[in-house]
Amino acid sequence: MARPSAPSAPHSTPSARIIRVAIYTRVSTDMQANKEEGSLEPQEARLRAAIQARAGDYEIRYVFREEGESGKSLDRPALQRMLEHVRRGDIDLIIVTRIDRLSRSLLDFYQLHRLFEKHQVQFVSLNETFDTSSAVGRAMLKLVLVFAEREREQTAERTRLAIQARAERGLWNGGAPPLGYDSLREGRLKVNPQEAEWVQAIFDKYLELRSTHKVAGWLNDQGYRQKRYSSRRKGEKGGKEFSISTVRNILQSRLYLGEIEHKEQIFKGQHEPLIDLERFDRVRKIMEANTAVPTAGRAWSQYDYLLTGLVRCSCGYMLTTSAGKGNGGNYYYYRCVGVQKRLSHDCPLKQIRAPLIDDAVLSIVRDAARAPALIAEAVGEANRLARQAVSPLQEQVTTLRLELAEAERRAEELLSSIRAVRTGDAGGRELVSRPPSGGGRRGGRRGGRRGLDQADRGPDLETRGHVRLP
Fold first, then answer.
1. Residue 343 burial by CB count (10 A; 0-12/13-18/19+): exposed, middle or buried?
2. Which of 70, 188, 218, 355 is deepest in the core (most CB within 10 A)?
3. pLDDT for 256-277, tens place per residue?
């Protein structure tokens, strides 16, 4: 979460420009378990102390706290809120305890670094003592991120091996506790007597009704609810009505046979089974028979649903495709996803014949094709959307032009230094003339900018700018 922070005490005169600081702290699930970095509070305290010790007028405007989020991607709520403040120009400096608190991916951090540079935001990491206000700091920062990414990959590999080893030992690998068991320490499961009766009732009821939809409805009507449990990160969870997918997962889980399944491998578990193999196989065969599609069915179920992924139900859910066969022949529908997900979902539509809505939309499109005003309006809207899509690309081209100019300037300085060292006399006088006007810096610049101009016209053209050493 992000919260405004009390301003830190200034260190300089009131007339100096105040540097607006954002503190970012993050703790991942693995680190919480290992206590590698501690909680968020020690990170924040350390960062506040570092700001207090810096010379200048610093004011801590925001504190962004990220709990239980991995650093392997940028899809984190607090981080995204911080980046929005960066885009609005609300932040001058971002400070973290370690670089990988912000990102463990070199590519992701490079994108963040580009954004920070664009909005003139400095980045400080305490552990690595890096500050992006200097060129050396920027170079060293990218170097360290390479090793951070390597460390993340090694940690992920160790985690995969540990999960595999636990499965081979017959231990449960965590997650939401399964109905019928209580989770103990170190991956062990203990039978919950009351819930064990529910699991057996689910299997027996399916053998009677032969439908997950009907079993889920029966469970909810009888007042049964999904397992309640406490999550370390999200508090109390569960207790919802049974859904079709929940019932299906229970009926297909080999956990209730006293086994552990991991990556299509089956291992004997250390927990007590709740269902015998004979009953489990009977349920499996019924489910396979229900999901099997006859050869003749593949033909009649084929229909060109024109509006797939485009239409929504009046209740707000998307409409998905469905088909059926009756005495009158083949039937094709758009069905409300909400009805499929939740049995208690009160939808006024539920489903609609696909040919009816497809024909209605096609009729509207045909009428619009005969109206010049509507065509002009559609073209105008298409052009507007195209301009919106092109605008960011044009900004990138502008940025690349500036970077190319800076690179050419540095290349010219480097060439001048090389010529001075290799060809200068005792007095430092340059003895070799500059390259002709067709080469060197001016020629390279024309080539590079010509490539950028071509990039404005099409994505398939390359940008080429060459500098030749004398």
1. middle
2. 218
3. 999 999 988 999 999 999 999 9
